[in-house]
Specification:
By secondary structure, the chain is of the alpha/beta class. 17% of the residues lie in helices and 36% in strands. The chain has a 10-stranded parallel sheet. The chain has an 8-stranded parallel sheet with strand order 3-6-9-14-17-21-25-28, with no helix packed on it. The N terminus and C terminus are likely disordered.
């Protein structure tokens, strides 16, 4: 009996050691001058706005005023060079390669019956592969997940040209991975799952405890870009980034019908999140949202050119001394006189210029 006790204790200590090691290594991955990254975003925005004014005089039909969309969307033949998208990121997630340089994988099967042995042709089969993949869809799809969808590194999920909805158990989990792009996917009605075996790579599957039910859970991951997605009505957060995650951009996305929208940082006491760097740009925080757009703990968060509409409690919150650089955002407060708070500030917080 004593031998078994030693074995279990060793395993627990080993697990904590691996977690601590991973968190400490992420501390070294943050960019040394986050203000320079924020200024770079602003320069790109200004360039796109100038471009839009010039094209208005030429009666152009591509007037985005958005540096991401200017990069690919104005090309009528963008389908012929889908992987160009990987060069269009801005902010802290701009280095996310996704599946750039890898093969295309076409999802033809919307089923998700087996989380341990996924069927070829399914989204689950594609995202667990070891090699870089650029994942596209053969048609419109509703993918109802049986368990959380655990990604491997170097994957792009590109929903352009189709209407792809992801719902069900999980939903999307980016845990200790790097270089993931998720583009043009509708994520909603995600609920808790787990207490089951789930595969995370071709050679590994393991027991998953009960998940939170986030739309997208970013856990100890880096170089992540979420663009042109819609997220609503999930069990916990729509997007949560915790446990030392960094190098993240969330852009051009639409959020609605949810309470705790976006959490950046595990807890006030979790120091590795001080290295977190996140860009929140060109998003619409729409109907029936309550709070956390985002809620920031530690780190450097650039919130730029977003539209906030009639929240029910507050828009942006912070604690544990994050730096929140707020630029060019539009806030339309609700009619409720007791719910007009734009900023919720706990303890000490430094923030930039707000609008």
């Amino acid at each position: 009996m004593v031998k078994w006790t030693y074995i279990v204790l060793y395993c627990l200590l080993s697990s904590f050691s691996q977690l601590a090691s991973a968190s400490l290594s992420l501390l070294n991955l943050s960019l040394p001058n986050p203000e320079a990254v924020a200024q770079q975003v602003q320069r790109k925005v200004n360039t796109s706005v100038i471009r839009r004014h010039l094209l208005q005089e030429q009666a152009s039909d591509c007037l985005t005023g958005n540096p991401i969309d200017d990069c690919w969307r104005c090309d009528p033949d963008w389908q012929k060079d889908r992987q160009r998208l990987a060069d269009c990121g801005i902010g802290f997630g701009q280095y996310a390669l996704g599946g750039k340089g890898g093969e295309f994988y076409v999802v033809t099967d919307s089923s998700d019956h087996d989380a341990v042995n996924p069927r070829p042709g399914t989204l689950r089969y594609a995202v667990i592969q070891n090699q870089p993949l650029w994942i596209v869809f053969s048609s419109n799809m509703l993918i109802h997940l049986s368990q959380e969808l655990i990604f491997n590194s170097y994957k792009t999920v590109d929903g352009r040209g189709a209407e792809v909805h992801v719902t069900g158990g999980g939903c999307i989990t980016l845990q200790y991975v790097t270089n993931v792009i998720i583009h043009n996917i509708h994520i909603h009605e995600c609920y808790q799952s787990g207490e089951a075996m789930v595969r995370s790579s071709p050679t590994h599957y393991g027991w998953r405890t009960l998940s939170d039910g986030d739309g997208i859970s970013i856990f100890g991951a880096r170089d992540i870009w979420v663009d042109h997605c819609s997220l609503s009505n999930c069990k916990d957060g729509l997007i949560d980034a915790i446990m030392g995650s960094t190098g993240i951009t969330i852009s051009n996305s639409h959020f609605s019908h949810h309470n705790e929208v976006m959490l950046l940082g595990h807890s006030d006491a979790y120091e590795p999140d001080s290295a977190m760097q996140v860009t929140i740009a060109f998003n619409v925080f729409g109907k029936d949202l309550v709070q956390r757009m985002p809620r920031c703990r530690r780190g450097y968060i650039h919130v730029v050119n977003n539209d906030f509409t009639q929240w029910e409690m507050y828009a942006i919150g912070g604690s544990a001394n994050p730096t929140i650089n707020s630029q060019g955002n539009r806030y339309i407060a609700p009619s409720n006189p007791y719910a007009k708070e734009v900023w919720y500030i706990s303890m000490y917080i430094s923030h930039g210029t707000g609008t």
